[in-house]
Amino acid sequence: MRTVFGTARMTAAGARSRIATGCCAAGVALLAMLPGCKHEPLVTPLAEGNGEPAACDPDVAYFQQQVLPLLISNCAVPGCHDQATGDNDGIQITDYGSLMANGTVQNGDLMESLTETDPDKVMPPPGQTPLTPDQIALIQAWIDQGAQDNSCAGTCDTSTVTYAGTIAPLVQQRCGGCHGGSNPQGGLNLGTHAVLSTVALNGTLAASVTHDPQGIPMPPFGPMLPQCEIDKFLIWIQDGAPNN
To answer: Which of 192, 203, 194 is nearest to 233 (CA)?
Structure first.
């Protein structure tokens, strides 16, 4: 994510008001979350034989839903692998095409850098939050399963949205690479409720995740968050960003 959040401001009460007005009206993109509004899918899921989106299989590692968010959050940090340069060996990691084009998956360099013990070679570099063993295992499973540009259609349950059970895990997956660790981008560590609730209640979090023109889009590289995840952020903000 970029070094700072956007400058848009939105109180929790304002969030409720804008949700209630309906997301399909012009100028209400900031809180686009009513079920009646149509949203284009971010990725095309693999289709089953009947043409319906394939359901997510717990035994399959999915690039679009699981692997790409980790790579964007932890590798596509500004000045790292957000674009191919001479300083990063021409390695850009912002989508499937750029990742596979540089050969880092095929030649084993990706997994080697993630499991490296030398602080001068490990990725993410010291100062950023390291990937967990489970996250590394997920990427390895995706490679072992053929490193496909695969996707699936999961269910979207927004009936119970809490900070501990919903929002904190999302932030860890989607934002932790840039806005975590000992040297977070812009000095903004979103790993605590105190910091996250501040940017939630002043409107910058909603502006960023919805790519509102008044804010700075988050993530800055790759696709927007899936609509289900955006909705969860907005519901939590509407409820007052509680520490629940």
So the answer is: 203
